[in-house]
Every structure is written in C-alpha cells, then in structure tokens.
Amino acid sequence: MKNIPVILMGCGGVGRQLLQHIVSCRTLHANKGVRLRVVGVCDSKSCLVARDALSMELNDTFLTDICRIKSDGLPLQTCIDPGNYEAFPYPESMRKLTDIATRLAFALIDCSASSETIEVINQAISLGCCAVLANKKPLTCSMEEFDKLFIQPRRIRHESTVGAGLPVIASLNRTLGYVMSEVEDGKPFSEVVKAAKGLGYTEPDPRDDLSGMDVARKGLILARLLGHRMDMSSIKIESLYPDKMGPNAMPLEDFLVNGLPSLDDDIKERIKKASSNGNVLRYVCVIENSRCNVGIQELPKESALGRLRGSDNVVEIYSRCYKEQPLVIQGAGAGNDTTAAGVLADILDLQDLFP
Amino acid sequence: MKNIPVILMGCGGVGRQLLQHIVSCRTLHANKGVRLRVVGVCDSKSCLVARDALSMELNDTFLTDICRIKSDGLPLQTCIDPGNYEAFPYPESMRKLTDIATRLAFALIDCSASSETIEVINQAISLGCCAVLANKKPLTCSMEEFDKLFIQPRRIRHESTVGAGLPVIASLNRTLGYVMSEVEDGKPFSEVVKAAKGLGYTEPDPRDDLSGMDVARKGLILARLLGHRMDMSSIKIESLYPDKMGPNAMPLEDFLVNGLPSLDDDIKERIKKASSNGNVLRYVCVIENSRCNVGIQELPKESALGRLRGSDNVVEIYSRCYKEQPLVIQGAGAGNDTTAAGVLADILDLQDLFP
C-alpha cells in the first residue's frame, strides 16, 4: 500500500470539500493501493499538525470536525483535541511545515487564495516534497519565481488552477460565461450581474470577476505552460467596468446601485451590433504565439464558444494535430466539488514519487 | 536525466509515426529531463534488438531507416546494419523480449493490431516492465486476462486505445462519424461509405468499421475502466449491414458493388423519420450502469452528439460532478499522428517508474 502524507493549506470551500473527498474515498483508494495520510491542516491563522508527523495522522473524525468548524466560519484554533495534534500560529506554522519537510516527503496542497504560500511551497519542493495547487497566485508571480516552482517539474501539479474539474489545464470564468450568455437574451447587464451574485457565481465583490483578472491569471498560467516566458503585464485585459468604478474609486454598494446600471446601454449596443453580423459576444482568453489577450470578442453563433450557455466553460485547442477543427473541451466550470476532485486526482497522480 | 528504455511492437502507421515523434522530439524531451532509448523494434515477422540492451540503442538514423523500409511495405528483416543489432524471427522474438525483461525494466509499446501480444505484455509487466498500448485487442480479452494486465495498475497505460489523440479514454469511430453526418445531407449511404474508403478513413474492408466492432471494443474497455466486469458478449452491437453481407458470406468487391447500395433506402428512411422529429442519427456507444449498447440512435440536432460533423469524435460524460450538463470532449478522432502523440504522452507519463 502506497502511503502519501498530505498537508493542506486553506480550509475554504475547496479545502473542506477535499478533506471530505479524502475521507469518503478511503475504500476506493485502498482498492487502488493508495492511502492518503493527512498530517496537517492550515488556515490563515494557524496550522494543526499530527504530534508525530512521521507516523501519526489527523484521523477522519477530527477531519470531519475541522470541516464543520470551518464551515461555521470559526478559526482552526477552535478545535480542541490536545492528544492528537499540536497547533502552531501563523507565521510560525510555515516554519513548522519546512521543519517537517526536512524529515518527511509529503504532498503540500494549496487550496488557499493567498499569494504568501509560494515561499513554503518552494522550500518544501526543494526539500523533496511535492505540491498540488488549486491556488492560482503562486503561479502568476514573476517568471523567476515560477521557474523555481518548476525546478522539479514532476513534483508540482495544478490542474485545478485553470480547469476546475475539467480534465485540462484551461477554462474561462464561470461568472463571465453566465453574464455573457444571459445579456444576449435581452436582460440588462446590471441585472444579470446582480443575479449572478445572488446565485453565488461571483466573488463577494463582483468586480473581481468583471475586471477580467481571474481569466487573465488562468491565461498567464496556460501561456507559461505553453513555454511563453511572460508576466501579467504582457497580457491585454479588457475590464467590463471603467477605472473610475474600480474598487479603489467606488464603494461596492455604490457600484451595484449606480455604477453597474450606467453600463447597460453600452453592452446592449455591442450585442445588437454583433447580432446584426450573426455573431454573439463572449468573454474569452486567446493565446496565440506569445500574445495573450483577455476580453470581449464577437464570435460566430455556431462556434463552440458561441454555443456556450450559462456557466459552462469551454476550451478550444488548435495545434498541429488539431489544425482545422479544434479539440474542444466543455463542461461546468468552477465549483468546489469539481475543483476538489481535480486536486484529489493530482494528489493520486503523485503516487509514483512516494515510497 | 531520466532514461526510459523502449521496445516497440508494430511498425504500422502509428508505430512509425511514434518512432518519428521520438526522433524529432529529442530536444524537447531533453529539456524536460527525459530520454527515450529505443532498444528494440518488432513487426509481425521479427524483432530487431540492440546488441547490448542494457546500454546500447537503435540510433536515430537506423530508426528513420526502419520507418522508410516499413512504409515501403517491406519486412523489418530488410534492414542491414549488422554492427548495431541482432534480429530474432517470430516467435523466438517474443522469448527474447521476456529475456531482456529479466535484466532491464523497459516500456513495452504495443502499436500492433494483434491479439497475440497479451502474453508478452503480461510477462513483461510481471518482470517489472511497463506497457503502453495503442492496440485494443489485449484489453478486450477475457476479464481474467484483463485483470492480470492491471495487476500493477500504474505500469500499464492505454489512453490511445479509445481516444486516439483526445485527452480521454474515449471516442467514437471516425468512419462512422463521417458516414452518419454525410448521409444526413442526403447522400446515399453506399456512396458515402465509398467516399470514406477513398479518403482512407476506413479499414481496407469497410465492413470492419460498419460492423460496429471497433466501437464495441472501445466501449468494452471504457466499461471495464468504470469497474464493470463484462465481456464482449455482454455488449449489444448494431451492425450497419446484415449477416448475409458479412466478410464470411460475401467477397469485398461484391459487397461494395451490390451489397452496399441495397442498404441505401433503409438508411434514407430512418433519416427521414428522425428528421421529422427534429432529430438526427448518430452511431453511438452508450454505457450506463452495467449496460453497454453500440448502434444507431436518434438524437436531438442541438445535442453535442447531434452537432457533430465529419470525422470528429465526441464524448459526453455524465457523473456526480456533471449531472445536468455533461462534460463534453470533442475533436478529430483517429489518425496516426494524434494516436502516436497519445502513445508518446503515455510513455512520458511513466517516467517516475524509471530510475
């Protein structure tokens, strides 16, 4: 039986779902000859680590408790079970992880949304650990930092950073997919955005999605995977709101009440124009040669992207093998469940690197 | 630098394309820290093996020669370069492979279309080797033989057996995809099949495709991957010609000239009926629970399968994560180039199992 020691950073929706998957898939994994031993779990405030990381683990009851506590919005420190683990406050917690890495090769899972995790990931990899990322931020840092992460390319996996559950490193943004296909049916932009927010499709501040930054991050990661040495600054990003309505210039409430509706007419006009050409508007990321652009494009109604409805994602890949007709991959985009399933697949795929 | 020793069985289109990929991707692979060392190449008649399999290899000039000779329709034995390798006639060649496996862990690549390779694959795996299959036949044997192949599940890969270049273990049949979408445009079935044959989409005898056996093989492999313990006999297969026109009852020429055209009216009638329901006909494989059916289905024009044109393949996956909208993967189906690329990806993915 392969034994993969796991340390999780981040107990948000994806992290919790991953813990639940790990617990509920024990039999399935055992049948495949693998056992995931959860040695530590961290949130932004602290880290809980099994007393003896080399042989002990956080048991399934305790992991289930963690999920419950975190989903109630409480910090990890709320857990009380002193026999089982030690707690280390941040940032000492990060030093503790490095310390464990000197004695044990583990898989470090980053399900946080922090840009601070890159250092501990780098150290862990250099000490012989593996890393699985659902967090995009470490991968959209400078090219130099990026190169360091991939110094042992087999030890780092990040399928979920751009594809959620899709079996590719690629995808668009759920919010923008939903917004673009809904406005097409004649609904005002502002109302569609508010509906998307109501459905939980957007970040708490929908401008985080409407700015195109999330798509741009995925684009950058993809472009780098294709071998292009570029930074965020080389990507042309079209925001769906003007700078003067940005988070630094306008409070969220003001944006929702006054800013958004003032954008309706412009979007309606663009849709009308596209429609008169038999086209539809889609928010897309195009990577071609060493160029990466993110923004609204007019596309034929009948293309894979044009046919896209609701919050589905689609990726079209043109390559030497797929020259005329692209390889198309399409399915539900984000979602904690699919993302966590992608993370879990990445972890299992590391098994040959463990004794 | 990882060193993966490789032995290839089968020098047809896919095998030759694989050798060409290996030779032309040397720099790319070196940049990723991997080197593929081709130790032996077999066709149905014989096997050429480097004199000292532990350290020598068939060099790139020689591999290119092999491709040229085989693409001229000549047997491997035609190669003359006695300093470099030893030749073993079949079946001694298979014993030679087992002999090498006792001393060297290599990746055994099956690009043949033979049902005889399963024994040497089983032996190689039990001796510590890995196997990559583009050949479907070893995977559609009895459940007992299938289980033996997967006794070391990480050591066997076969992405290309059902998906050609598509990044999934799944696909339809190129010929049938082409045929079904062309007849829809009003062309007679018999003419479309002949056109497909002319385009090189079909097997030399198009009945090999029209029988549905190729799709059924893929269906069986997929169903087994999903955990269903079934055999070919449990699959309901709809052939596009009646038994009395089968290869044992009617010569190929007779089938093309007289058999095929007699089928036109029936197909035309079925298309008309489907069309009156707003549907189209597609040749599909449906796996649901432990049932696997292969044949013509009436499907909505607007579904992913219904929209399929030409020789593209499409796979729809419904699962817990993809409940309402399926995960859809679509792209060119077969083709030596994409299949060989899939085989190569499988080989590279074995690298962690090599020292």
From TrEMBL, chains A, B:
The keyword NADP applies. It catalyses: L-homoserine + NADP(+) = L-aspartate 4-semialdehyde + NADPH + H(+). It comes from Cynara cardunculus var. scolymus (Globe artichoke). Coiled coil: none annotated. This is Homoserine dehydrogenase. It comes from the Eukaryota. Pathway: Amino-acid biosynthesis; L-methionine biosynthesis via de novo pathway; L-homoserine from L-aspartate: step 3/3; Amino-acid biosynthesis; L-threonine biosynthesis; L-threonine from L-aspartate: step 3/5. One of its GO terms (molecular function) is homoserine dehydrogenase activity.
